Every structure is written in C-alpha cells, then in structure tokens.
C-alpha cells in the first residue's frame, strides 16, 4: 500500500509552492514526467539486458561450450542481440529521454498531454523486443546494427515517426525563435534517423539492390546511425547539460555552427570506409576514408568546447552527480573520434581490418561517449521531474564501476584487437588457432570489464527504482529542493 | 537567428548528396551485372536446392558474426592463407540476397570453403563438435542440429563417424537433421573456382 502511494507521489508530486521563477520549468517537467520516466526506465533495463548478452558473447569466445547446447543462445545470435539491444534499447531510450526533456525545456512552455510521444515510446520498446525475439527465433539479417528482422525494422520506423512528429511539433512551438546548438543536433538526429532507416528499408528489403551493394547500404546505414543520430543526440546532451550543471556557458560557443555542419557533412560520407579493399568500387571506399579524415575538424572543435568547459569547472565536477559522467563521456568522444580517424588510415586499416579492434571502438563510442554522457543527462533530469534527491552512494558506486569497467573493456579490446589483427592480416605463418590463443588472454580482461560495467548498470537500475519508490521526505516536499537554473543557452548564443 | 528551416534544408542537401554519391552512383555504375555463361559454365555458380536452404541456416545461426566471404588482394594475407586465388569482385555476389560479406574474422574466410573441404563427413564432424579436429578451436558446437537416436535394425548410412571418446553410447547413433544437411551442402557449394576478366587468379597473371 505504501509503495503504491509512493509511486503516486512520484508521478504526481503535490509540492508546496516554491519560487515564482520555477513555475514554467515545473509546468514543463510535469507535462513530460511520464514519458521521460518511461524512457529512463527503458534505458536502465535495456542496458542491463544488453550487457548480459555482451558478457555471454565474450565468455563464449573464450569457452565455446558455455551454454553450448542451446540453439537459441548460440554465439551468432547473442552477438547481434548484444549490439542491437545496446543501440536500439539503451542508447535510443537514453538519448530520447535527454532529447524529449531538452526539447521541452528549450521550447519554453508546457506541451500538454503528449499522447503521440507516449504511444511512440511504448511502440518503440515493443519493436525492440520483437526485433530481439526475431533474432533468437532465427530471422536475423546479416546487416550490421540492423540485424533485426525486416518486420521489426518497419515497426521501429513507424514508432520513431510518432516520436519524431512530437519532437518537431514541439520544437516548432518554441517561444524563442532563436535556437540553441542542442536543438540543431536534436532536430538533425530525428530527421536523419527517419531518412537513413527509410533508405535502408527500401534498398535492402523493398527493392533490394544487387549483391555487394547491399553491403554498401548497410555500411552507410550503420555509420550514419552512430554519426548522424546517436552522436548528435549525445552532443545535444553535452551542449545543454554542461552549462546547466556548472552555471557557465560553453567555451567557444560561437564555433558550434561550423562544428555542426562539418560534422554532419563528413559523417554522411564516411560510411563506405568500412569496405576498404572489399569487392566494392575502389573510389567509393576512398571517399569514405577521405571523409573520415575530414572529421578531424569538427572533432577538434567539439572536443575543445566540451573539454574546456568541463575542465574549467574541474573543482566542481566531483561536487555534482551529472558532471562526472559528462566528463567521462566527453573524454571518450575525443578518444573515439581520434581513434576512428586513425583506424581508417590505410596503413592502420591493413592491420586491424576484421579484428576485435572494431568492437573496442564501438564499445568506446556506445558505452563510453553515448552511455556515460546520457546517464549524466538522465541524472540531471531525474531529480527535477520527480522533485526527489538522488541516492548519491549508489551513484558513486555506479560511476566508479562503469568507468573502471569501460577502461578495462576498451583497453583490452583495442590493444588485443590490434595484436589479433596484426597476426591475422600479417604473414600467413600464424594459424587461426595461434591467433586465438593470443586473443584469449585479453578477452578475460574484457569479460572482467563488462562485469564491472554491468554492476554499474544494475546500480543505475537500483537508483532509478530507489528514486521512484522511496517515500517523499520533508525536504523533497518543497519545490525549493531544486534550484532554478540560469538560461545560459540564450545569453551565450 | 532562427535556424529551423535552415537546418532542414542543409541536412536534406547533405543526405541527398551522400545518398547520390556513395550509394546510388556506384550502384548505377556496376550494380546491374549479369552472370557470364549458363548452366554448368555459369559464373558465378548458382546456389540452388539444398545449398540455398543451407544459406538460410547460415544466416539464421549468425555465422556472419565470425566468418567473412570476401578475399582481399591489396592487403592482408588472404591469398597466402589459401582462402582464395583471386580477389572477390562485385560479380561474385550478384545472386546473394541478402549479401553475406561479413565484417569480422574470428574464424576463417569462407569464400572457397567448398574447395578446402571436399567431403560432407568432415564438415558434419566439425559442426557436431569443432573440438574433435582442433582441440583449441573456439567455434561453437552445433550439436543441436544433430539428433541422437536409438539404432533400430540397421544403423543409418548418414550416421556420423566419430572418434571413440566422442562416440555415443552403444546402440545409439548421431544423425544430421535436415538443417545440418543443408548447411553442409551450402558449405560445399562455396567455391569461386572460376576466372573473371575483372579479377584473374594470380596463377594466370604469372603465366603472362
């Protein structure tokens, strides 16, 4: 009975009136409370599920007979389940949690009931569930990051269209006509996802292109899914939350425009770099490599903006909960972007092609940059929408477990993947079994790192449950628990 | 500044150009290839019957998580490893829908696996338990594609021939299911043992 009344109090807090200035903010938060809480819950649950699949897949690489009798959990099914649960489950739920709330706040007024948004979110999560079911059922496709069967891809597109419709409609209702960098990135991400998924569906399922060109479409899709959808959502979180958390504007904000356009332009062309030396026309993969090098420009600008803003407030980072996650996220972005440029360099690519180095990079991008930043963003949002304080002990544990796990996983996969690739692509002297023996020692470290990260993910879920189920204390009954934040995004632009 | 429409138009142009130059143009250039020759002379070889079923099993089991089907010439040691005699080119893939290029090599490249294994028995043993032929291999066992059953009357012709320590109990035998048979037929059908003008094998190049 108590729990039910606590949940009710979380969903519809009855607060004593605070300052006049927070009336608008509170009205916006109230209108977005239900969808945002749902998205945060989705992110927490999918992160745990994805990591569980990830750990099973890494264990299977070392000990292939682990769950070896199961046709459902064979390695070839667990691996795509891991990546797809991570991308469409965790990253999209987390990204959309930050995106919807940021769009709502930047629109400057409450948006009503948001029925389309709620239906879209529920449909999205069911599509992910169907997609994973499809993979285990045996309907997977061979396209990287789109292993979901075609029917799940159609469902994803339809449900995202609802969410996207809400986002653009809300963006259009904004009371300030001028826009902030976070809004450009969010609007771009919504538009780009609908575009790239439609192109992938048409060119792969409706009117499939011939043979190897399907591989080209898949490479284009997966590279743009990260570069034009998930990363912009995460940039938006950094642009919005850094000034909010620390009360200082983004350093060098006026270069955001050029960073935005160069990032979009070069990313859109970088996909074919994955097919270097493959059976596609040589010039296409060369365009991809060239465009990847172009990413050096926005990478520099964005890194300087985020890292200077964060390091300028270094003494305050450890006093905030969200700030430290944002710091790890921004550091991971710089490292990820520089490493992926380095990896596309022809001489490096000759060493690392087809090795586990790629998985290490993806982990750095998805669990490091996207994951840590969005978790930081969600921890900024959570106390504001429910007007409760966060359990900082659990979150301390989560932060260190995830950071440590991330370093172990990324370090072992990048270093070990490089060794593996060097043997695999070097002379033909070392047999595949020899290469395997080399890679198994670093895979133990990867498993250890993944277990640490999973521990952090469980702590994330626990702190979410704690916040929603705990009873409201006296201080949490007052709207003054959350201090009003300054409107830096307008004064700085 | 109100950047709303500006973002849409800009992004629309970027995505349209990216689609036109990295997807549509290469496809228009060499995405409408046709096979050379017909019936048994056809290049590339057609995957039909049981082998076509096997390709579905290959896709269902996610073999692509570890195996590529592309031989590179410019880099790597694919040819030295005996994975093929020439580079794979677009024409090799014209019948594949969906295409099974792969992007990870925890296992070997399978473009020419049908040339490396000639007998179905060896492949059945490999799928049943990869540790039989290579004790350190980390390939998953696909024993769930095989059925252990009681020998009634005469033993089946299809029963797996296994070394003693892996053999089933007395009076039992292990036989492949239809999925296992299809997968093996697909493996045996994978051979790019024909020469295309666009990618002559190294032997031919040497002769010249």
Q: Which two protein chains have the largest interface (Cβ within 8 Å of the partner's Cβ), and how many residues from each?
A: A-B, 90 and 76 residues
Overall mean pLDDT of chain A stands at 92
Highest CATH level, the class of chain B: Mainly Alpha
Task: List low-confidence stretches of chain B.
Answer: none
Name of the CATH class of chain A: Mainly Alpha
> Approximately what portion of the residues of chain B adopt beta-strand conformation?
under 5%
Spatial extent as radius of gyration of chain B:
22 Å
Most strands sheet of chain B = 2 strands, antiparallel
Strand content of chain A: under 5%
Q: Which regions of chain A have little confidence, pLDDT < 50, spanning 5+ residues? A: none
Major sheet description of chain A: none
End-to-end Cα distance of chain B, whole Å, is 66 Å
Number of strands of chain A: 0
In sequence order, what are the helices and strands of chain B, one letter per element? HHHHEEHH
Overall pLDDT metric of chain B: 89
Number of helices of chain B: 6
Q: What is the strand arrangement across the widest sheet of chain B?
A: 1-2
Fold-level CATH name of chain B: Cytochrome Bc1 Complex, Chain D, domain 2
Can you tell me the number of structural domains of chain A? 1
Helix content of chain B: 25-40%
Give a verbal description of the structure.
The complex is a heterodimer of chains A (493) and B (208). Chain A contains 17 helices and no strands. Chain A is mainly α. In chain A, α7 (212-246) packs antiparallel against α12. The longest helix of chain A has 40 residues, at 23-62. The radius of gyration of chain A is 22 Å and the shape is globular. The termini of chain A are far apart. With 208 residues, chain B is mainly α. Chain B has one domain (42-199): Cytochrome Bc1 Complex, Chain D, domain 2. Chain B has helices at residues 4-30, 50-60, 113-116, 120-128, 178-189, 202-207; strands at residues 146-150, 172-176. Chain B has a two-stranded antiparallel sheet with strand order 1-2. Chain B starts with a helix and ends with a helix. At the A-B interface, α2, α3, α6, α7 and α8 of A face α1 of B.
């Amino acid at each position: 009975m108590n729990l039910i009344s606590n949940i009710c109090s979380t969903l519809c807090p009855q607060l004593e009136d605070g300052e006049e200035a927070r009336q608008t903010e509170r009205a916006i938060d109230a209108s977005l409370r239900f969808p945002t809480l749902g998205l945060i819950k989705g992110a927490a649950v999918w992160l745990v599920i994805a990591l569980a699949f990830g750990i099973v897949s890494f264990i299977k690489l070392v000990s292939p007979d682990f769950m070896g009798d199961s046709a459902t959990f064979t390695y070839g099914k667990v691996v795509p389940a891991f990546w797809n649960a991570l991308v469409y489950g965790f990253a999209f739920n987390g990204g959309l949690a930050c995106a919807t709330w940021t769009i709502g706040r930047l629109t400057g007024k409450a948006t009503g009931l948001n029925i389309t948004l709620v239906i879209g979110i529920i449909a999205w999560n069911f599509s992910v569930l169907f997609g994973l079911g499809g993979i285990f059922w045996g309907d997977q496709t061979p396209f990287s990051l789109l292993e979901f069967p075609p029917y799940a891809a159609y469902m994803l597109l339809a449900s995202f269209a609802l969410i996207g419709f809400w986002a653009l409609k809300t963006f259009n209702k904004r009371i300030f006509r001028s826009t902030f960098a976070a809004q450009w990135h969010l609007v771009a991400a919504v538009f780009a996802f609908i575009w790239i998924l439609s192109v992938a569906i048409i060119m792969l399922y409706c009117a499939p292109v011939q043979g190897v060109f399907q591989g080209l479409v898949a490479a284009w899709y997966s590279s743009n899914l990260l570069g034009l959808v998930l990363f912009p959502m995460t940039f938006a979180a950094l642009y919005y939350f850094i000034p909010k958390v620390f009360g200082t504007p983004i350093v060098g904000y006026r270069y955001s425009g050029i960073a935005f356009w160069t990032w979009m332009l070069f990313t859109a062309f970088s996909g074919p770099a994955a097919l270097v030396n493959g059976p596609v026309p040589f010039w296409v993969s060369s365009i991809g490599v060239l465009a990847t090098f172009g990413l050096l420009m926005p990478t520099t600008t964005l890194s300087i903006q985020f890292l200077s803003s964060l390091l300028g407030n270094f003494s305050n980072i450890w006093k905030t909960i969200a700030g430290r996650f944002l710091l790890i996220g921004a550091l991971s972005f710089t490292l990820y972007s520089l490493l992926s440029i380095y990896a596309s360099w022809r001489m490096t690519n000759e060493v690392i092609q087809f090795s586990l180095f790629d998985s290490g990079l993806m982990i750095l991008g998805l669990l490091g940059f996207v994951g840590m930043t969005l978790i930081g963003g969600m921890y900024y949002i959570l106390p504001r929408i429910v007007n409760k304080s966060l359990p900082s002990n659990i979150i301390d544990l989560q932060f260190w477990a995830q950071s440590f796990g991330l370093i172990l996983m990324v370090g072992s996969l990048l270093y070990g993947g490089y060794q593996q690739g060097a043997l695999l692509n070097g002379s033909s002297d070392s047999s595949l079994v020899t290469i395997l023996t080399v890679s198994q020692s670093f895979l133990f470290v990867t498993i250890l790192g993944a277990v640490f990260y999973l521990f952090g993910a469980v702590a994330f879920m626990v702190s979410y449950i704690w916040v929603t189920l705990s009873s409201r204390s006296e201080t949490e009954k007052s709207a003054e628990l959350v201090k009003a934040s300054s409107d830096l995004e307008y004064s700085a632009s | 500044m109100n950047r709303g429409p500006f973002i849409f138009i800009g992004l629309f142009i970027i995505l349209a150009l990216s689609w036109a130059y990295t997807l549509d143009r290469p496809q228009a250039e060499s995405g409408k290839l046709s096979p050379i020759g017909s019936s048994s002379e056809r290049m590339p070889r057609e995957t039909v019957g049981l082998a076509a079923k096997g390709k579905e099993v290959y896709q269902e089991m996610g073999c692509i998580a570890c195996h590529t089907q592309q031989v590179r010439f410019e880099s790597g040691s694919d040819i030295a490893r005996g994975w093929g005699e020439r580079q794979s080119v677009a024409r090799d893939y014209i019948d594949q829908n969906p295409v099974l290029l792969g992007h990870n090599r925890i296992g070997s490249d399978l473009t020419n696996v049908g040339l490396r294994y000639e007998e179905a028995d060896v492949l059945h043993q490999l799928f049943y338990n990869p540790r039989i032929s290579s004790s350190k291999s980390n390939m998953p066992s696909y024993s769930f594609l095989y059925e252990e059953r009681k020998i009634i009357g005469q033993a089946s012709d299809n029963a797996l021939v296994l070394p003693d320590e892996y053999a089933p109990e007395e009076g039992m035998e292990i036989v492949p299911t239809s999925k296992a048979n299809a997968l093996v037929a697909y493996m045996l059908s994978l051979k790019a043992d024909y020469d295309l003008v666009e990618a002559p094998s190294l032997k031919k190049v040497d002769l010249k």
